[in-house]
Design a protein that fits this description.
The structure is a single chain. The protein is built from five helices and five strands. The chain starts with a strand and ends with a helix. The relative contact order is 0.21. It has a single domain, classed as HAD superfamily/HAD-like (Rossmann fold, 3-Layer(aba) Sandwich). With 163 residues, it is α/β, with parallel strands linked by helices. Helix content is 29%, strand content 15%. The mean pLDDT is 95. Helix 1 packs parallel to helix 5.
Amino acid sequence: MSGRAAFLDRDGTINEKAPEGDYVTTPERFRFLDGAEQAVRMLAGDGWRVVVVTNQRGVALGRMTLDDVDRVNACMAHLPIAGVFVCPHERDSCDCRKPGTGLFEQARAALPEIEFGRSVVIGDAESDMLAGRAIGARTFRVGPPPMPSLLDVARSLVSGSDA
């Protein structure tokens, strides 16, 4: 099923989000949310290109470096993720920071088989939903109960109940 991509936010969708105003700056602070690894494997196994798109404003604020972000992202290296795309910029200073669509365009340039209209965006923030709508993808907001988890959304997509 070529063309389908599952664009996943990172913090708050795949891993535990740091407290407001703080950032996941080291691999030691990276903790997968329950079921997230299974969800990524499930989506990839069903033919979705799993792509992580993540705002990392902490770089612009001097709280971490791009090397720090790469080390944190390496915590996901054992998963079938087709690519990780990072916006390190301050708010509203670029087009790649969600809700802008630049990260998605970067992903499509690297993985030209991606069709936005056949894709989904899964995240925990309104900026994820806005970006997803802007590219014409279906959007799924996840979070703590009673909101669905990444695993809940993956199950519904794979079973076809929401596909």
